[in-house]
C-alpha cells in the first residue's frame, strides 16, 4: 500500500459537479476581475471568521505584506515573528523594509511563546505577528494583552488555520488584522493562488482594498502607488463551494489526528503534538517529533509512505536572511525542531486504513530501534 502525503485531486473530485457549476457561472458572467463572485465570497468568509471585513487578495504573502503596509510599518521598524514559521511571515516584514525580530516558540506547541515576547519588545517594535502553525492557534490572549500594554498592533498569520478556534471563537478577528492564504494545499484551498485579510478595522480594510487594486478606488484615479493583488472571481467562486465544506473537512482531519494520537500514544520514540485546552486546531499538518527523524522518514518511505518536513531550515539560517547575521545557535529551539519534526500524511480524504498503515510503519521503526 502506498500512502500519499496529500491527495488534492481526490479532494477536489468529490466536489466536481459543484465546482463545474461555479466555474461555468464565472465563464458565462463575462466578469473576470473583482465583481459579485469576489464580493459574495468576502461576505461569506467575514461571516465565517466573525470579522467585520474581508478583502480578497492574490495570495497569502500579499495579505501579510499589505496588512503591514496599511499599518504604515516601514524601514526602521521591528516586527516580532516566530523563529520557526514559514519564511513568508518574515518576507512580508522585509517587503515593507522593516526588520523581522524572531522569538522562539514553545517547543511543545510549536507556536510563538508569549512569555518570551515581552523581552524582545523595543522602542522600534510596531507589530507582534504570530503564526498559527500547523492549524493550531497561537496563545492569543496574552499576545493581545502585550500588544495593548505596549501600544502595538497584533497581526496573525492564519494561512494554516482556517476554521481553528481559540477559546471557542474562530481565528479571524482576535488581532487587529489576520492574513489568510488559499494556496491549494491549505485547509481552505483554491485551484490556484488566493489570499485574504479579515479585520474589524475599517481603515485597514479600506487601505488594503485600494492598495491591492493599483491604489485606485475609481478606475484611472490613483490615490496611492498601489499593487495588483486581487482575488480572481474564478477562485472566489471555487472558494465559496469549498467554504461550505470547510467544517466537515476539518472534522475529517480531526478524526485522522485522533486516530494517530491513539495509535501512537504508546510509541516512546516519537513525541505527539500538544494541544492546549483553549485550542481547537484544524490539523493543517500532523507533526510528530523524533530524534531519529531522518531514519524514520527513510523507513516510512521504504514502505511507500510519504512524509514531509515543515520546515527543514528555519528562516534565520536561510541564505535569504544571511544579512541579518544570525548564525547557527541563535535560535536553538527552532533549530532543534527543524531536525526533529516530521509531518505525517493528513487530509480530509485519507482513509482510516492508510492512517493505520502509517501507525504500523512508525511502530515497526520503533521496534527495530529497540532491537
Ligand atoms: C502558505 C503560507 C503563507 C503564504 O501563503 P501564499 O498564499 O502561498 O502566499 C504564509 N504563511 C504561512 C504560515 C503559510 O503556511
Description:
The chain has 371 residues and is an alpha/beta fold. It folds into two domains: 8-243, 3-Layer(aba) Sandwich (Aspartate Aminotransferase, domain 2); 247-370, Aspartate Aminotransferase, domain 1 (Alpha-Beta Complex). Helix content is 41%, strand content 15%. The chain has twelve helices and 14 strands. The protein has helices spanning 8-14, 16-29, 36-48, 60-70, 87-95, 114-120, 140-150, 202-211, 233-264, 293-302, 332-340, 352-370; strands at residues 53-57, 78-82, 99-103, 125-129, 153-157, 165-166, 169-170, 177-181, 195-199, 216-218, 221-222, 279-280, 286-289, 341-344. The strands form four sheets. The protein has a seven-stranded mixed sheet, with helices on both faces. Strands 7-6-12 form a three-stranded antiparallel sheet, with no helix packed on it. A two-stranded antiparallel sheet has the order 10-11. A hairpin with a 2-residue loop joins strand 6 (165-166) and strand 7. The radius of gyration is 21 Å and the shape is globular. Bound molecules: pyridoxal-5'-phosphate.
Amino acid at each position: 500500500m502506498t500512502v500519499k502525503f496529500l491527495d488534492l485531486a481526490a479532494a477536489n473530485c468529490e466536489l466536481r459537479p459543484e465546482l463545474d457549476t461555479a466555474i461555468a457561472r464565472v465563464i458565462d458572467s463575462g466578469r473576470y476581475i473583482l465583481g459579485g463572485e469576489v464580493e459574495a465570497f468576502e461576505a461569506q468568509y467575514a461571516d465565517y471568521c466573525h470579522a467585520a471585513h474581508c478583502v480578497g487578495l492574490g495570495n497569502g504573502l500579499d495579505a501579510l505584506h499589505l496588512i503591514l503596509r496599511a499599518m504604515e510599518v516601514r524601514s526602521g521598524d521591528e516586527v516580532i515573528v516566530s523563529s520557526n514559521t514559514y519564511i513568508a511571515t518574515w518576507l512580508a516584514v522585509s517587503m515593507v523594509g522593516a526588520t523581522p525580530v524572531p522569538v522562539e516558540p514553545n517547543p511543545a506547541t510549536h507556536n510563538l511563546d508569549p512569555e518570551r515576547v515581552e523581552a524582545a519588545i523595543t522602542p522600534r517594535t510596531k507589530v507582534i505577528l504570530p503564526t498559527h502553525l500547523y492549524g493550531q492557534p497561537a496563545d492569543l490572549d496574552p499576545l493581545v494583552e502585550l500588544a495593548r500594554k505596549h501600544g502595538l498592533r497584533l497581526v496573525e498569520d492564519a494561512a494554516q488555520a482556517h476554521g481553528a478556534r481559540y477559546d471557542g471563537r474562530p481565528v479571524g478577528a482576535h488581532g487587529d488584522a489576520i492574513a489568510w492564504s488559499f494556496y491549494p494545499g491549505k485547509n481552505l484551498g483554491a485551484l490556484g493562488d488566493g489570499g485574504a485579510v479579515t479585520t474589524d478595522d475599517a481603515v485597514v480594510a479600506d487601505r488594503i482594498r485600494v492598495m491591492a487594486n493599483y491604489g485606485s478606488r475609481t478606475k484611472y484615479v490613483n490615490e496611492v502607488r498601489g499593487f495588483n493583488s486581487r482575488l480572481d472571481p474564478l477562485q472566489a467562486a471555487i472558494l465559496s463551494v469549498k467554504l461550505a465544506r470547510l467544517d466537515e473537512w476539518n472534522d475529517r482531519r480531526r478524526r485522522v489526528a485522533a486516530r494517530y494520537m491513539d495509535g501512537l500514544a504508546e510509541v516512546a520514540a516519537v513525541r505527539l503534538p500538544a494541544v492546549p485546552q483553549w485550542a481547537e486546531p484544524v490539523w493543517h499538518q500532523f507533526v510528530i517529533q523524533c530524534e531519529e527523524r531522518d531514519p524514520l522518514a527513510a523507513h516510512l518511505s521504504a514502505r511507500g509512505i510519504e512524509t514531509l518536513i515543515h520546515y527543514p531550515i528555519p528562516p534565520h539560517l536561510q541564505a535569504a536572511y544571511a544579512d541579518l547575521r544570525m548564525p547557527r545557535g541563535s535560535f536553538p529551539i527552532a533549530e532543534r525542531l527543524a531536525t526533529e519534526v516530521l509531518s505525517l500524511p493528513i487530509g480530509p480524504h485519507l482513509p482510516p486504513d492508510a492512517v493505520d498503515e502509517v501507525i504500523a510503519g512508525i511502530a515497526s521503526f520503533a521496534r527495530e530501534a529497540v532491537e
